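Handout, section 4.2: multi-component inputs.
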Amino acid sequence: MSSSVSSRKKRHPVGRFFAFLGVTLLCLILTLLGLIWVLERGPSPTVTAMFTRSVRETSAIRWISNIFLSEEELESYKSVSTENTVTEAVNTSLIHIAEGTEAVPVSEAVKLVDIAEGTCKGKLLIVSDPKQVILGTSDQFVKQPGLQLTDMVAKYDGIAGINAGGFNDENGSGNGGIPQGLVIVNGELIWGDGTIPYHMVGLDADGILHVGSMTGNAALEQGIQWAVSFITHDGLASSLIINGEVQRQNLGGGVNPRTALGQRADGALLLLVLDGRSINTLGATMQDVVNIMLEYGAVNAGNLDGGSSSVMVYNGEIINHCASVTGPRRIPTGFIVLKEGASHG
Amino acid sequence: MAEENRRRKDRWGLFLLIWTLVLLLIGAGCCFVLYQYLSVYEDTRPEPVVEAYLAENNTEQLLTAARNNVRLEVTEFEDASDLFDAYLSSIDTDRSLTYRFSSKDSDDQHLVYIIYCGNSEICSLVLIPEDDSPGFDRHHWKISDVRCAPITEMLPSLNVVVDALAGEELSLNDIVLTADYITDSDIPIPDLNKVESSLSPEPHLVRYEVGPLYGEIKVSDERGNTLSPVGDAADGTLRFSVSAETHSLRIRTPEDLHVFVNGVELGPEDVVSSTLGVLEGLDVYTQGASCLTNIYELNGLYTVPTVTAVDAEGRNVTPVAAAENNFTFFHPGDAVTEEILRPSAEQFFNAYMDYSAHAYDATRYYNLLNRILPKTYLYEYVSTSDQAMYWASGTSTEYKDLRYENFHKVSDYCCTCTVIYSADMTATSWYEQYSYSLENAYELAFVSERGNWYCAAMNVITAS
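Output:
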């Protein structure tokens, strides 16, 4: 009798603990669902659009957008697809790359700027000589996983770098081994189909940044040396600014970490990484990226892979707040800033 | 015991129920607060205010508002409104209007939205909060200002540097450049001559610097000439160099006078030539007196020359003729010599005028010849030349303002003087009918023979 009473006394606390935990978790889940309901069906269409676009841009949690909204209802919040939009070609005459005595001193050739624009926080690397920037890749696509950006920058003996093109990332579990779209390295199309149009971000032999829709073959004909392509899950193309004109049709994204590459009229490249998904900052919209690019004088700019891939390496270290909870992700491509004096030209 | 267990179970169940209700209440509260906040957020978004403004105003109305509020920092040589108009004329105003938020220009009380026409920034809208607050410390917004685009940040600019002689009046875009724009007030002139090198202060260049300028640049000198820039403006600076006006100077003076140019005395090294002038060939009569006439010539003077002269006694000497920086000095007249020579000088020149103003007449001819020293060039010329006859036969001359001056004793047998007059000439030949006036001056040399003074030579000094 005494042992029976004793075992009952011992079981009760465990059962109560799980009951307490279960009820608490249930209430938490209900609260979260309630909050999501408010965000998705609440009084602010602006927030609903921002929320659904933000989660739909992520590989891992894009299903959240479907909890209270049907696909038909989501259509109105989706970013405008530009899959078939033919963009204006970059006018290379707008870019005047300083050479010889015009060039900036070596000490100012690469300048790092802290970005804190409104709710956006991140890093901007200004590289005066665009020929100092190349596209780095992992060792072997498909057969091997991608490289973390620190390793990729080290592979090219660079001083800095940002992530570049997209990659296969089903449910957020991709290993960065398979690029999406096209990859052009040193004037060769090493990934993608030469006849299919891609939303490309690339550099030609003169260091001029090209953004816009073109096939791999057309890119090679234009003398593109280094290029990737990127398109969001909702089909937003990569071009943000072409010849000084904002590509409004591509600004529909949500709030997320962002990576972008721009170029000023004097040829300087703007390598931008904006943080997100943290207490400090939720992230940036495409419009935010454009605003920052314009503020720093970009004439052309293209959006690159964002979210948990957004990362900037400088002097061997990651200098932004990487949004990936498992650490810096493996990626197939990255724009690498070579050491001063070294250039692909 | 069982009762106690039942009670304990009831208390636990009650706690769990209350805990659940509390959590649900908190959750519902969070959702409610979020709902309320989003309601207010949506209601107080500034973007709809901007969009409504753009919908209500077409591009032209927007540009008009911006034109009326041009606040650009430009120099006095440019008009901000003109610059803005020129900028607008260069953009395609048919393009659609778009906007973006400018966090750089915004703060808690001012939201700035930049408006674009196509890819060209045309103006910005400034929003300020309204007094009411629907909650959560948020406000409705209203437009308080339409500012023209800061085109001075977008347009290429140039600085202007102008080097000019100090004192030269220059204009930039037809507005006089004042001393406020002088950045270097003492730039030496490399090719300055001795006279001007001795001046204090010596002529020098000054440098004007103006900038930044965004529109057309026109630099003109004080004569109204538009200057061309020197070189290109690759470094962002457009340079002008004003070719300073220079002056030349010729001075003819007896060697024993002291001549000053802008206060600096000319020395023997400045003499370019010396001549006996009107005393040429009269050595017998001058008896070795110092009677050379020096010629000074100065070129490339940056200052307007002021020429003065004094004689050995320090008396100021007035130039007999001074036209176009051509100065001729003589010895100042002395009364004793004038008393001796004036009658003879007047008689000679009267005879000369009488002869030259009429057709040939033997009486007038010999009357003149009798007052000229035989065997001189003058005598030879008058006695053999027929030009005077022909000329006089077709011309009538009226002499006016006759003055005899500068009587100077060279030696006991030689004196000089000058004759200055105006003459109205009228040509009367059948093929020439015209009139003109002359301002003439002659230098005359007289010598004494057998107690009479004869004109031995005459030189024209100036004629205009």
